[in-house]
Amino acid sequence: MKNSYSLLFISIFTVLYTSQSIAKLEQQCLLHVPHFTGNIVKTDPNSQPVYIVSDSAEFNYPINAIYRGNVDIQQGNRQLNTDYAEVKQIGNAEALERFAYINSPFNYKDNLIQLSGRSARLSLNDKEIAAKGIDYQFVDKQGRGTATSVEVFDNHRIMENATFSTCLANDNSWSIESIKMRQHIKEEYAEMWHARFKIHDVPIFYTPYLQLPTGDRRRSGLLIPSIGHSRRDGSWFYLPFYWNIASNFDATISPKYMSHRGWQLNGEFRYLVDLGLGQIASEYLPNDRYNPLLKNDDRYLFYWNHNSRFLQNWRLNIDYTKVSDKYYFSHFDSKYGRSTDGYAEQSISAVYYQPNYNFTISARQFQVFDNVNIGPYRALPDINFNYYKNGLLNGLFDFKLYSQAIRFDNNSNLMPTAWRFHLEPSLVSSIANKYGSINLETKLYATHYQQKKGRDSQDDVQKSVNRVLPQIKVNFQTLLAKKNSFREGYTQTIEPRIQYLYRPYKDQSNIGTELKSNYVGFGYDSSLIQQDYYSLFSDRRYSGLDRIASANQFTLGATTRLYNSDGDERFNLSLGQIYYVRNSRIDENIESSTNNATSAWALETNWRINQDWNWHGSYQYSPNLKKTSLANSILEYNPSGNNIIQLSYRYASKEYIDQNSKSNNYGQDIQQIGMVAAWDVNDHWALVSHYYHDLAFKKSLESYLGVKYNTCCWSVGVGAKRYVVDRFNPKDDEVKYDNSFNIKLELQGFSGHQNSGVENMLREGKLPYLKLFSLH
Q1: Nearest to 565 by CA among 494, 489, 488
Q2: Strand pairing of 113-117 and 129-138?
Q3: Cβ-based neighbour number of residue 510 at 10 Å
Q4: Residue ranges per structural domain of the chain
Q5: What predicted TM-score, i.e. pTM, was given to this entire model?
Q6: Reduced to 3 states, what is the DSSP secondary structure of residue 505?
Q7: What is the rounded (10 degree) CA torsion for 211, 212, 213, 218?
């Protein structure tokens, strides 16, 4: 506990009392590389004139010309300086070739490279150069080295006994030596034979062949490995290989060795074709050696995301994630899901769009990670049709029709299956002027169920169920604006809102089967009650259609906003509550009724304190529970770029959790504080830290500290993390933690686009940073 708070205070102190750099690292790095000035000449070199200036010259026409002292040769983009040069002409007028021979130290430059060496031959008919004993430096980007000889052609360079590094001059942090190197100019990559990677001139490893990028273009090859250690995984090593299959296909294959678990093979394939773009990924660990819950089982993940448009008006979307077991995201870090999500979704949908209507056919199921015996229903198929028509009856009404045909099935033979057919027409009429608006909406819910009991169930279900529910809703809004008396130049608005909603009662206990102890939710697709400010004005208590509660209620709410003289919103505050004329209910079970005269008070506020500071807060007070049910607050300091400090607090009462989860077994309140700090300390150092602590639980949930050091040609990142893996007995506060660290070394300077790595480090952890809602 003491150590955790020490980490928190050290992180805040570090970022607050360390100054930022004036210039970005990549800008500083580019200041030390040569830059081409002037206009690039792209015409045929043979047609470009040659300009030669020297202290003295000797002409032997038409054989040769000898130039001595401060010789300067220019042709198009090329310029060469030396003390001695001989220009020869070979061939006849129809095939005349011109060469400049340099037999003294020289300096050469064009729009792509600068060379210095002992001797050279320069073709004045094309872009070819042959030189010996050279040092080279790329122009306008990092990349330098040496070679005993080089031949420069139009689209490639061939070097013998060559070196390459993106480090700046006089920096030997790393380099690659090779017997032969071929640099491909347009494709921006280098091939090396018998390559030796060196750190400070000390050989680290050897490979007979190596490809290395020299620019932004994608190239196949090994990426930078990572190493680390954790209590569960043991020591691990991660080595990704990138395969640039084609311009529209690529793949990354990443084997990972964990001393406690074994070898895990990870792969990701990306594609862009006429039918759309997508990503397919998999993670596979055979015979997991360290798994206290699943002994020696194969662990795997499969992920597919696809989005496309075809036949002009059709869209196809696939979002499929499946894992081997419910503990997968708790045991493995994966960018394709988190344990905090609670489930993995598997869905596919095809949508047809027209200006006044759209049609969707889809299938959807969920893999839940909760400890339940019976999981949620899958929807296969789910057919939806929406129709819109505005301006009916001389513009008085807008018409909308939502219709659905869906089949529900469940893996458990205890649960019934069903077809649901639903029609939901509505008419909306709006009257608005400068004082406000009144919206009148009438709607009809017409639903038919064809149900069949589960094969192993002893409970019968009503085979055919019809439910017809009319609804009327009246919504009044107005906006009052005035100059704020407390802040000069500010305008304040007050936006009251009143809504009346009526829908008669219909007993819906004959829809589906309710098994609270085993089943997530009840009905086929109903979900939990939500009572934040925005849902106070929604039509229904439940997001699904199987439980449409009666309504005879008024909702009162108001929002006030403050705008500065530039019209930017700097503050808002919203407050609302539902007043029930009659209790809202779905059946004769009193637990499903609202059972009180009002809903919870809901409050939400956002405050843009200044350019750097933002605050967000929300609060709910339940008259039924006679206590605070929900509360959260976030204060964020974001002066520029990646520099962020965020403090957060989250509270949920035990009664509220039990009431809405239907589990009645959580056992305590949720009271969590959190801190996230991310800072580009200067042009070399970046720091990220986050810490989450449960006050009711009296234990740390997760802590993370990541530090990255960046230079022009390399960077190293170190991360340490401690988080709760399993919670055995909430009442006795029994938990198990995992402690891990990782190290990642990266070579920089290939593309000229460098970053501090703060954004990637912010995504580390089970509880990632969530960007605060900001006012503009």
Answers
A1: 489
A2: antiparallel
A3: 14
A4: 8-212
A5: 0.77
A6: coil
A7: 40
